[in-house]
Amino acid sequence: MNLEYFIAKRLITAKDYKSSISAPIIKIAISAIAIGMIMMIVSVATGIGLQQKIREKISAFNGHVIISNFDSNQSETTTAPISKNQDFYPKFNSVEGVSHIQATASKAGIIRTETAFEGIVFKGVGSDYKWDNIKEYLIAGKLPDYSKNVNQEVLLSQFLANRLNLKVGDTFNTFFMKEGENKLPNIRRFKITGIFNSGFQEFDATYIIGDIRHIQRINKWTPDQIGAFEVFVSDFDNIEAVGDQVYQKIGSTLDTKTIIEKYSYIFEWLQLFDFNIIIILIVMIVVATINMVVALLVLILERTQMIGILKALGSNNWSIRKIFLYNASYLILRGLFWGNLIGIVILLLQQYFGIVKLNPENYYVDQAPVYLNWGYIVLLNLLTIGVCFLVLLIPSYIITKISPVKAIRFD
Questions:
Q1: Among residues 86, 7, 44, 41, which one has the least CA distance to residue 321?
Q2: Residues 6+ apart with CB under 8 A from 239
Q3: How far apart are CA 321 and CA 35, in angstroms?
Q4: Under 8 Å between Cβ of 185 and 178
Q5: CA angle at residue 81 from 76 to 84, to 5 degrees?
Q6: For residue 201, what are the CA distances in angstroms to 54, 188, 198, 361, 362?
Q7: What is the pLDDT of residues 294-321, one digit of tens each?
Q8: What is d(CA 158, CA 24) in angstroms, rounded to the nearest whole number?
Q9: 3-state class of 226 per DSSP?
Q10: CA nearest 383: which of 267, 263, 277?
Q11: What is the pTM for the complete model shown?
Q12: By C-alpha distance, which of 156, 118, 164, 160 is closest to 139?
């Protein structure tokens, strides 16, 4: 029988234990650990969830690596075409980690209705376009089909649809400027087949998605001329390494840019979440350990006479310290149990019901996204247990300084 565990268990289950002076302090310590665990689980889940969601939105509309002409064009529109007849298209087999590649082109235009007008960028896509990335944001209508003949079907954002007072099934005129002065613009009439809402204001206020063959005809390109290639990688964490490999494999007249480079201001902002999460973890663990140290000291002082009797009976210091460490471990595990239970329930409620709403203009999402992973929850628990246990070894050292004679007389 483990004597130290047996004594610690009797202390925990004793009736006077619950009504002793240390009872409220113990409850505060358990509550501190529970609240700390809730804060850590929620902060990590929402922080990582927000990062992943924003990454998904940016890559859905841009790909992970963009291959374009090696020129000084900094606009969102295509000025000079590139040939679609490349060794890396339609399968980029020479670089490991590339999951898909698609051809696109873009051209600036103006949508004009009877009551309003809006400047837009028409993004042309073809039959190779990866619609799975956009399907998640489709709120009305259906996805267009560009696998057959050229058609007038387009996807319009909810933001533009509201500003132009348009809905699924409506048609509208779009004017595309010609190069050179004193030339009448090209006019195209499009039909809205679907409406999307990404929550990303920069995309929703700018892009409409249509058939790339319209841009080819307006610009008088051949069918094998496009504006750019969008490359998708299978693991976002390897995007920079894959981007470097892609650059090495393409021609000298082509250039590459990852979305981290294109939207550097967004990804720099996202990196701040990592720092904030670390600060929250440190603060919560420090608060939990301080409360546990106080609780352990109170337990030791409250059981001073018992310590003296055990020493008089021949128990060594480490044996007595183990009794109180077992006791403290019980309190830590109890706090972790409630913290994990409440934290996971909060995350599940947010995941399925979206209780906490966010302003998409500031956070690019309309509700707090959740990344629920059992791996990081287990690591947080192990980290908390490990740090608390190591710190509690220090106050338990006070037991070695207690004299049996003085302890037995202690009142």
A1: 7
A2: 64, 65, 233, 258, 259, 260
A3: 27
A4: yes
A5: 115
A6: 12, 25, 8, 6, 9
A7: 888 887 777 777 777 777 777 788 888 8
A8: 55
A9: strand
A10: 277
A11: 0.81
A12: 156
